[in-house]
Design the sequence.
């Protein structure tokens, strides 16, 4: 028998389907990690986009996520249930802002994003505890993505700098 919250969502509902990371959030072990992995094919599909188109798409995914995550949480009657992973998808897109989508960057960006999302250093932890609804669900992962993005930029810069020496 399914848990009660699971009876309130359906993968046939497009909002729920997206919020649950195309079903990846329903994997019982580490749904956030699987939600982050679900973002990788979308990232690869965005390879033809220029930097501004990718930025606009990231903004759109983040903005839509506030509604998608909030609606699904309300329908489940559980705030920020672990199976809601659209925030991880959007956070992964933030991770790669203004960076080339190379395989080394994707792997390192994925690892960095998961570290920031799991450990929730300041201010991510405060956001996670204090904000609620769709905005709260989304913002901590968007901040985790921003911190992963800054870290990945620093790593790329350092590798470029030390290669030139």
Sequence:
């Amino acid at each position: 028998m399914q848990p009660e919250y699971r009876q309130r969502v359906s993968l046939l509902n497009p909002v729920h389907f997206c919020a649950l990371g195309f079903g990846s959030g329903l994997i019982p072990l580490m749904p956030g990690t699987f939600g982050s992995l679900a973002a990788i094919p979308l990232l690869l599909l965005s390879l033809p986009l220029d930097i501004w188109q990718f930025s606009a798409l990231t903004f759109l995914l983040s903005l839509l996520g506030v509604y998608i995550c909030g609606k699904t949480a309300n329908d489940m009657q559980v705030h920020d249930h672990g199976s809601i992973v659209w925030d991880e998808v959007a956070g992964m897109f933030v991770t790669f802002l203004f960076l080339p989508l190379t395989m080394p960057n994707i792997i390192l960006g994925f690892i960095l994003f998961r570290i920031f999302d799991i450990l929730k250093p300041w201010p991510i932890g405060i956001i996670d505890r204090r904000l609620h609804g769709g905005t709260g669900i989304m913002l901590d992962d968007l901040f985790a993505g921003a911190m992963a993005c800054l870290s990945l930029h620093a790593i790329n810069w350092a590798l470029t700098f030390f290669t030139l020496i």
In short: The longest helix spans residues 133-164. The mean pLDDT is 94.
